[in-house]
Give the backbone structure.
Amino acid sequence: MKLRYALLGLATIGMVFGLSLAARMPSDAVQGNSARIIGIHVPAAWLGFLAFGLTALFGIGWLVTKRPKMDYLAASSAEIGVLFTGLALVTGMIWGKATWGIAWDWGDARLASTAMMFFVYLGYLALRRAATDPVQRARRSAVLGIVGALQIPLVYFSVNIWRTLHQTQSIRPDGASMPTETLLAMLINLAAFTILFAGLLIWRADQLRIEEARLAETVLAPNAGSAVIPPKLQPGS
Amino acid sequence: MRNKLFVIPAVGIIGIIVAFLLSGGLTANTVFYLFPDEAVAQRANFENGRVFRLGGQVLPDSVESGAETTFSIGDGGTIIPVVTDRTPPQLFDDDVPVLLEGYWEGDRFRATQIIIRHDEQYTPPEESNASS
């Protein structure tokens, strides 16, 4: 119960620190100050990948154990993933408008595949609302969560597979093509966003458990008027 | 019943991915942009004002502004002269990588849209011209 507050507190401290580093890091020779958005854009995109990956893993967990908690965690992870993928799309468009001169282009594989992933997980959330039976809902969403995760490597490597407007990864196994201060600002935000994710995940999954329990009570509780018994009609009357 | 639940979303998503790969990967014309030497080599495919995208770097000291802006782009090999009536974006400058949308107009490329491409390099501004 206390863990979520500790995580959210730690994430807040980390984000204040990380974002102030992003505000104070050197600007970029070409992009100027718009380069600072890297402190939000990259961690947000990373959380999308992490969240959707975990949705698939919790889905597998549910199929194996059939524990409702696995389903709540998978659903919460997808919700947070949609939020942060949306944030990555929006911050990317703001940066794109300032740097590229355009906010969006469907011809770019990274942009288009990220949008596709965003819509598939919106579909995941819609699918969850389409079933009332918790077991049926958990099974369907587990399957979609696992299949949907196939897109994650496609989105990540889209900039390497196709010729894109979006730049390739700045951090690669052979090093990072950015100044140390920029790298530090990005990595601290990555860590802080990840802790934020953990806190939100625990909180939201617990909420879903409570919602489900309340719903079960409501279904079992007598409805108004259920004590009224309709009179039996005699044939011919 | 169980199989059906697996098959419907699986077929749907794999279908989307395959369609995406086919549309982006198999036809050369759907490559997002052409490099200058490719644009010259494939010129026969882009006659009669057929629109395509061209990527390269703005050659230093090639930009001339007048009623229309002219400049040249290249990528170390082929050089293509460009003409446009659009106002170049803010970051447009010598040596900047650009993506141009437009068509062949004689031996020149008429750009109808100029996009600045940014690579994965982040470099601090030089001390001498550091602005805030």
Remarks:
- Chain B has a mean pLDDT of 81.
- The two ends of chain B are 64 Å apart (CA to CA).
- Chain B has two helices and five strands.
- The helical segments of chain B are 2-25, 36-41.
